[in-house]
Structure formats: structure tokens, C-alpha cells
Amino acid sequence: MVTIKYVRTRSLQKGMIIDQSIVDRAGRILIARRTPLDEYHIASIKKMGIPGIYVREGEEDELPVDDEKKVIIPESVQKEIEKHTVSDRAKVQLSESVKARVAEGIQYLYNDTESEGFTSTSRTIAEDLMKAISDNDAIAVDISALKISDEYTFKHSVDVATMAMIVAKKHGLNDKEVYDIGISGLLHDVGKSKIPNEILNKAGKLTDDEFAMMKQHSLFGYSILKNKEDLSNPIKLGVLQHHEKMNGRGYPMSVDADKINLFARIISVADIYDALVTERPYKKPFSPRDAVEMIMSMTEELDINVMRSFLESVILYPVGTDVELSTGERARVVENNPKYVLRPKVIGLKSGKSYDLSDISNASIVIL
Fold first, then answer.
1. Residue 226 falls within a domain, yes or no?
2. What is the pTM of this model?
């Protein structure tokens, strides 16, 4: 049985298993979760000023084999699945070479915000993302598989930029605006490069003063960009305002809805989703489904029209995914409906029965 406990840095010992990730100001993973600590790790944690971390003790219980979930699909059902399968909309995909270039570029940007090549590197990364979207004629993003790499160096920035570009495209923005919002998404958290590591990596809840410092990152980001004349004003406002809310209760300036730039409204939705599903030193990740439902509940805080574009741009259950229904039956997704991201069309793996979950007649059935 595994137990998780908080250990002060001064009490850390070699061989303890860390149960959180330690990141630097650029968002790079320095010590991955479940790494056995050695003396170098402990010295690094102390040097970064982190007061304590979570560690895990014990071993995982072996999970019993669940024979009920080993579904043998009858031939007749397989034919029904093939008959009703409709391929998903074209999804954006990043090749390994693109991911490698982007990873290197993001590290460069966050490590040296005053470099002469800052803007050109930002543009090069955005061009790579734009090309990936154009090459596939992508109009959707598979949010369940967006994090297809363990490389956390650039994960959040690229995830947010990619989602923002797809949502912007769905929202009717032109190619130049989609490209620019890609740059803004890549740089939306660049101000965190000015936040102390001990705050970024704090395992517990931030104090009021620490949270106040963290909330400054969008101002810091804007300060980094404001004198870069080759970046457009919407790019800079996207960075500055991505934590502002439509009800005027956001930060850093608590501006009203009519003063929030469209780039910021789009990046906000992408940023909130990605933050919810990403494991951080201070929290476990939400499932993609739970994250989408939380986004849908934020009607007072997010732009409703942008939220609609987001929901119509994402694929939560890719065609071919097996899911469990509230009826107790296992089913396979055969078609998605952009208007109802949580309610695709499925075929029961034993019964062969078709359920269009977006139809009112199936309103009582949900995917667990």
C-alpha cells in the first residue's frame, strides 16, 4: 500500500521517492515524479529554496485482473461498428522533428527573454505550429492525446498555443490572426521566468503573499514584450490579460469584459483547460472529461462564444475509443458530434446496439 506524506527539505533522505515534479522557471522538469532521490537531487532542492516536498512510501497493490472488461466482440457487432464508423475531423499533429525544434526554441525563449533572437524564435515556433495545422487541414485537436510526449519542457506553452490556434480558426479569425495568437499562446507564461523557484515548486497551498507574486506573472510577461516593436499589440494583450475574467474578477487588473482582448479570451480557455489536466507540484490532474465539464460551468468567467468555439474544436473521445456507459455496458465510439463533445455516437460491444448520446432519447445515458 502506498502512502503519501509531506517531508521538510531538511529531513529528506537518499532513496526517498518523490511524489511531485520539480520544475524550473521555464517549466522544465528537473526532477520527475516517482524519482528516487539521490544526494544531488536533495542538494538541488535545498539550493532552490523549496521548503518541502511530497514523497511516497510503500508499494502499489497489485490490481486484480478484471475479466468483465475483457470483451470479446462478436462478428456481427464488429460489422455494425464498421458500418457506423465515421472518421474524426482532421486533427493537428506534430512530428517528432517539429517537437524537437519547438522544445529547443521554448527553452531558448524562457531562458533569455532579452536575447536578440527572441522574436524570430517565437515566430519560427509559431510557423511550425501553423504548418502542422495547414498540412493536415486540421480543424480539431484531440485533447485526450495532446500530451503525447513525456517532454514537459515545452508541453504547456505548446498545448495552449496549439489549442488557441485551432479555436481561433474555428472562431473565424484569419490566418494572420491565427498565427499571431500562436505566438501569444507560446509566450503567455513567459513572465513566470521572473517568479522565484521556491514559489513555482511549492507543493502546498501558496500564502497570500506568494499568490500575489504568482499573479504578477502576466504583468512580468507584458513587461518583457512591451518594447518589442515587431510583436503586435494583440499578442502582448493576450499575454497581459489571459487571466482576466468576463465578470471583472480576474487579474492582474480586474478589467471589465469589454476591455479584454479577443486573443486573451481565447488563450484563457485553452490555458484553464490545460492547467486542469496537467499535473503540477501542488495538484493532481483532472481527467479531460472533468476538465471540459468545468470549462462548461464557467459561464460567468469565460466568453461564451469562445467557449462554444473551444467545445466545437476539441475531440474528447476519438473514434475507436472504448468507453463505459452508465448502463454498465462497454461501448466503442464510432462518430463524434462537434456540437456535443461529451456525447458521441457509440456501439455496445456485446449488444451491438447503437446509442447516439446526443439524442434526447438517450439523455439518461452518460459515459463514465
1. yes
2. 0.81
